[in-house]
Amino acid sequence: MQCIAIDWGSTSFRAYLLNNGRLLETCNTDEGALRLSREEFEATVQKNCGHWFDGTSKLLICGMAGSRNGWHEAPYVSCPATLNDLAEQLVSPEHSLPFSCEIVPGVKTITTSGVPDVMRGEELQIFGAASLGGIAEGVFCLPGTHSKWAQLRQHQIIQFSTYMTGELYTLMRKHSSLANLCNDEDPDPDLFELGLEHARANPALLNQLFTSRAMAVTGYLETRQVSSYLSATIIASEILSASAALPCGALINLVGDPALCQRYQTALAYFDYPSQLYSASEAVLAGMDPLFSETIRV
Amino acid sequence: MQCIAIDWGSTSFRAYLLNNGRLLETCNTDEGALRLSREEFEATVQKNCGHWFDGTSKLLICGMAGSRNGWHEAPYVSCPATLNDLAEQLVSPEHSLPFSCEIVPGVKTITTSGVPDVMRGEELQIFGAASLGGIAEGVFCLPGTHSKWAQLRQHQIIQFSTYMTGELYTLMRKHSSLANLCNDEDPDPDLFELGLEHARANPALLNQLFTSRAMAVTGYLETRQVSSYLSATIIASEILSASAALPCGALINLVGDPALCQRYQTALAYFDYPSQLYSASEAVLAGMDPLFSETIRV
Q1: For an engineered disulfide with A129, which of A44, A278, A287, B261 has Cβ 3.0 to 4.6 Å away?
Q2: Which terms does the UniProt entry file under GO BP (chains A, B) (predicted)?
């Protein structure tokens, strides 16, 4: 059967044409859900994927297209959440496409102190990576603009936390008083490790952000080196917070962009956490795969 | 004797005309040191203070005018630093003003792990507040774009740390994915306290930044309330980090903008630290006062 999977993020549109689970074609654009009005979603699908449609096509969408300001709201499923729970709560936007079109809900959790957290899209990456790795229980880290750390137990996402890591790094590089000190393009492994070392000695992030600047101003770092140092201190802050409740040496399942995951793998190894890498695009397809089949539906 | 004191920050110019220590006039503009080329400093003094000059005027400048990219570099004095150390290392820029004109150096410190930290301008606020309060030993907190926490012992600044608190708050409000959730103008005391409560339960700042968003997205907070909550979580992160090595209940000497200091006073009280407030402008003048007299000079 021919299927189309769309991972519709805030700032990106990623579509995959599949035939019986085999990837035939891919389409990536920057037409993210935050950039579109409600009326533009169907036309964007039509424009990017119209030539893929045939009589048997079926469309599944995950990510921010299901948010309140997206195409059609798909209310969050509460933790603990299984892939079956998501399958039961698919929603269909109004559309005139010549086949079924459904949006996968996100997942929400509430901490013991009553604070909510949410994800949209990452839940399928977690279930997909778990499927690829044959994992029923484990810790998943999904680095990115809003990094997620999730606990899987008996195939359920039982809790998760989000860290504004990638967004803070971008804000620092583009809009902060560090911006003109962050003009290096190539990662510098020695400076990355120095950042990890300083973060271990002093985990106060607000202080680290300033000392990244002070090190350049006083000549301890060359200007071109600040990005790698800064990246390490922010990633280390995420890892030190997120791993606080984990047993020493727990295996971390890393799901995301391969280059970013490698940076995290280096940082995790520095803090004595081994990790296993999964590509985000392979994981999201593995997560969607059972949703295309009727068998999982109730 | 008639004197002019200028506190020349990154984004602000604050000049004070004094006669035998009595404040006669003030001039505040946004002609901060970061906005001026080297050639514009003298003209800015001339334009804003020219009508104050008489035969006996004497000019002292502290703050970013003494940075490498300012008017004339005044190299940092190393901790432990006394007011006398600053007086010994005043520098004179080239100028054609009809009286003496000197720039006060900043102060630098190096932590035990070899990380540098720097201040310019705040050192005079610390010495000045200490003088106003008759304090030889104590902890000083100077809230702001780059908040400083300093230890004074035997009239010396023995160490200090900087937190990028105010800058992060501004970045979040103006440029982040929270920007459109931060349109409340008036501080909300209940939401400020909720932010403090959540920060105490979970001090992971990168997580707090995201949950400020998640609380609005899921309807736990109204949009207009996010600023107060966010402000509390960022300030709490600074206080929890900076106070980690302090004895319980230590008195904090707060020096800065009165409205911002009141917000810090609320947060400090929540974490059981009593505080004493000093206005930044009064403190900087009290800090400069001895530098105008010849008696302190070596």
Answers
A1: A278
A2: D-galactonate catabolic process
